[in-house]
Design brief:
It contains five helices and five strands, in the order H-E-E-H-E-E-E-H-H-H. It has 152 residues and is α+β, with helices and mostly antiparallel strands. A five-stranded mixed β-sheet has the order 1-2-5-4-3. Strand 3 and strand 4 (82-86) form a beta hairpin. The longest helix has 19 residues, at 49-67. The radius of gyration is 14 Å and the shape is globular. Residues 132-136 and 141-152 have low confidence and may be disordered.
Length: 152
């Protein structure tokens, strides 16, 4: 089984909305082969709680405006460190950079195929505030000198 056209459409709109709010390291995985509860995961991150909330709100707004769909569940808004939006067909994870590095969802789902994303979303992987290691995993956010704290 692979991602449905409807799920891919949701991923595309959500990824563009995240990119519009300057999320970084946006990635989407086809998890339909290994999970029966959803087709795909979209993961995006930000360097502060306020931006995490803003990205999640924009994703929600754009999916509602463009596709007339609302999440069936939303979790994590209070802390603003990891907001999960469950649309049944897709699940969106907007994480603070520290949470993303610690929980490493990218590594957990790395064997699943990546889904195509809009160009703006792909470009989010090259933002200076988005640091990754050789394996493509997110590392700590940049320090005041513009270098990742975890790399020497």
């Amino acid at each position: 089984m692979t991602v449905t056209d409807h799920s891919q459409q949701l991923i595309t709109v959500a990824a563009q909305a995240a990119a519009d709010k300057l999320a970084h390291n946006i990635v989407a995985f086809d998890v339909s082969e290994v999970l029966s509860i959803t087709d795909a995961f979209l993961i995006a991150s930000a360097n502060n709680d306020r931006q995490v909330r803003s990205i999640a709100e924009e994703i929600e707004d754009q999916l509602r405006e463009q596709l007339d769909i609302k999440p069936v569940r939303r979790e994590g808004e209070r802390d603003g460190r990891w907001i999960l939006l469950d649309y049944l067909d897709i699940v969106v994870h907007v994480q603070h950079s520290e949470e993303r590095s610690f929980y490493s969802l990218d590594r957990l789902w790395k064997d699943c195929p990546e889904l195509p994303l809009p160009e703006d979303a792909l470009a989010s992987r090259n933002r200076p505030d988005a640091f990754t290691d050789e394996a493509g995993n997110v590392v700590a956010p940049a320090d005041d000198f513009g270098k990742p704290e975890d790399l020497h």
